Each structure stands twice: as C-alpha cells, then as structure tokens.
Amino acid sequence: MFEESLEGVPQGGPLSPLLGNIMLNECDHELERRGHRFVRYADDMMIFCKSKKAAQRTLEHILPYIEGKLFLKVNREKTEVAYIGNVKYLGYGFYVHKGEGKLRVHAKSVKKLKDKIREVTGRSNGMGIDDRKTQLNQVIRGVNYFKIADMKNLMQELDEWTRSRIRMVTWKRWKKIRTRFENIKRAGLDKETAWMWANTRKGYWRTAHSPIMSRVLSNERFKRVGYLSFVECYSAK
C-alpha cells in the first residue's frame, strides 16, 4: 500500500541522515558544554557516566533539551540506562580487559548472522548449488563490518557451523542411496564403508557432523570449489 506523506523525509533516503546530523550537531555541542563523554552515529547516541545514578540524572536532564529545544522525538522504548557490558551499539558489544575497553560482536548480531546462514542453507528453500554458494559468500563477506572487533574464535566457530550446514543440505540433496554411495566412494573410502554410510538412518544434522562427511566434503574441497571462509575474510587486510 502507498500512503502519501506531506511531512518528514523518506525513511532510508540519503537526505534523512544528513538532516539528522544537522539537527543533532546542536546536541553534540550541548553535551560538550556540559562536560559529557559521548559517541553518536546518525541518530544513535551513547552518553557515558561513572555511575548508574549519574547516568539516570544525565538522561533526565538531556531529554528536555532534545525534545524541548531541538523539537526532536526521543524513542523512549530504545532509550535506557545500562551497564556498558550489556549495551548493543551498531551491532557491537563491549567488555573490559585489563582495564582497557574492547569491542566484540553482540550476541544479537551473532544470532542475526546465523539466521541468515540458516535461511541460505535451509534444506527446503529450493536454492541451487551456485545460488546458495553466491548468497552464502555474500553473507560471509559482510563480516568485514565487524572487522575491528575481537572475534577470531567466533569466526572459527562460525566456519565449523556453516560447513556443517552445507554438509547437511548436500547430504539431503544426495537423496538416493546409489548417489551417496558413489560420492562417498569417490572420496577414497572403501566400498564396504561407503555402502554402510550410504544406508545410514541417522538424521541429516547428525550425519553432517560425522567424520565421513568431514572427509567427503573437506574444508579443502570447500575452498577449492569457491566457498569463502569467515576466518580468511576476517584475517585479510
């Protein structure tokens, strides 16, 4: 449905963040005048305080300025006083290590990423091999957004999990026992072992984690046919 709007600017348009920065520039100066430490990206802002009580007081004092002086509406549902370790900002989370602030990928961002991978590697989405590989590689490349975070271990975990998802959907695609037998045998296994696994009654996900599938669809094979790796994209400069 289309509804004509005579006020405001289109959401997602290039003019919206520009006008937001012009308006909130005044808020930046006001926060600096009050001696606050803060960070702002477009209309998403965090103000840092030493205690919960000070943060609550700051919030109560800055809201009247934003709404009364700048005539901007504050989203009260998304505005909160919280410890920095519990905050999600632009997809990032924060923690302190040896007295130094560090960045990590927030748990909600990880869940969102895994949901995208589940969608692409779904067993019943009807997607072809090439389309699945293309879309999955696009998702993996998107990890560059979080490049400044500490996430090497997370990238390794995501690589293992994603490859298991590919093995699962591939095993489902090899519907016939004869097809499974030939593909397993082609990986260098003997006929007896290949026939035994081709006839397995284990579920798709359990089979995907088996040593046999790790050998049939090895990491080297994934790389050879063009699948990208989270670790390699994260490590690349």
Give your account of this protein's structure:
With 237 residues, this protein is mainly α. The chain contains 11 helices and 4 strands. Strands 1-2 form a two-stranded antiparallel sheet. A hairpin with a 2-residue loop joins strand 1 and strand 2. Helix 3 packs antiparallel against helix 4 and helix 6 runs antiparallel to helix 7. The radius of gyration is 25 Å and the shape is elongated. The relative contact order is 0.07. The model has no long low-confidence stretch (mean pLDDT 91).
Overall residue-averaged pLDDT value: 91
Radius of gyration: 25 Å
Tell me how many strands there are: 4
Biggest sheet strand line-up:
1-2
Amount of helix: 40-55%
Distance between the termini: 45 Å
Poorly predicted runs of 5 or more residues: none
Give me some keywords for this one:
single chain, 237 residues, mainly alpha, two-stranded antiparallel sheet, 11 helices
Question: What does the secondary structure layout of this molecule look like, with pairings?
Answer:
Blueprint: H1 15-33, E1 37-41, E2 44-48, H2 52-69, E3 92-97, E4 100-105, H3 107-120, H4 129-141, H5 152-173, H6 177-186, H7 191-198, H8 204-208, H9 211-216, H10 219-225, H11 230-235
Antiparallel strand pairs: 1-2, 3-4
Helix pairs in contact: 3-4, 6-7
